[in-house]
């Protein structure tokens, strides 16, 4: 997860699991009520996901990753950066694409459970939203799939060094040209 999570990268899988359980297929009624049906009811009542509110802010309300405050805050910092990423949803940035997809899904008559996953930032910097897929091979269940671009802390540091070197070279070239 790179820069945002630092030494807490080991929590990323657990945080994704928490999200996946929060948006999981419903297991039943009464004591088993939860998952996507509960999220749809909460969305109807509280409008957790809405245009103009970041996915970061909505996720903070869900209190995902609360076992470790530093990891949770790093995660929220990462989510706050998703507006800087493009999405596979036209002109929407990554943050807007997630919020829009969740809002639309939760408002539907039969909302799909949501599966959050990740992919390599080096391979594709886009936030990817897939309306209907089967990401879990052992469940015959359609999901809304949201894939987040991530990288290791080592890759983030290397990328930052490359960018800093490029800025320094550009600055030196501009200074040389001016003199």
Describe the structure.
With 179 residues, the chain is α+β, with helices and mostly antiparallel strands. The protein is 46% helix and 12% strand. It contains 6 helices and 3 strands; from the N terminus they run αααααβββα. Helix 2 crosses helix 5. The protein is elongated, with a radius of gyration of 19 Å. The N and C termini lie far apart (42 Å). The mean pLDDT is 91.
The end-to-end distance, rounded to whole angstroms, is 42 Å
Question: By helix and strand content, what is the structural category?
Answer: alpha+beta
Largest sheet: 3 strands, mixed
Task: Going across the biggest sheet, name each strand in turn.
Answer: 1-3-2
Mean pLDDT level: 91
Order of helices and strands: HHHHHEEEH
Low-pLDDT runs of 5+ residues are none
Give the overall shape, derived from the CA principal axes.
elongated
How big is the Rg? 19 Å
Topology, number of strands: 3
Proportion of strand residues: 5-15%
Number of helices: 6
Q: Give the helix proportion (percent range).
A: 40-55%
Task: Give a short overview.
The chain has 179 residues and is of the alpha+beta class. It contains 6 helices and 3 strands, in the order H-H-H-H-H-E-E-E-H.
């Amino acid at each position: 997860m790179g820069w945002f999570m630092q030494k807490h990268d080991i929590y990323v899988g657990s945080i994704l699991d928490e999200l996946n359980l929060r948006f999981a297929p419903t297991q039943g009624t009464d004591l088993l009520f939860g998952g996507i049906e509960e999220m749809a009811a909460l969305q109807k009542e509280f409008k957790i996901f809405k245009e103009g509110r970041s996915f970061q802010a909505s996720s903070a309300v869900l209190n995902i990753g609360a076992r470790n405050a530093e990891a949770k805050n790093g995660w929220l910092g990462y989510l706050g950066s998703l507006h800087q990423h493009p999405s596979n949803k036209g002109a929407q940035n990554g943050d807007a694409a997630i919020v829009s997809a969740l809002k639309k899904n939760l408002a539907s008559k039969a909302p799909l459970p949501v599966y959050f996953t990740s992919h390599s930032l080096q391979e594709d910097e886009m936030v990817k939203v897939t309306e209907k897929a089967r990401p879990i091979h052992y469940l015959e269940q359609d999901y809304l799939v949201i894939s987040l671009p991530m990288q290791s802390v080592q890759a983030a540091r290397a990328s930052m060094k490359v960018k800093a070197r490029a800025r320094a070279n550009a600055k030196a070239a501009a200074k040389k040209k001016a003199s």
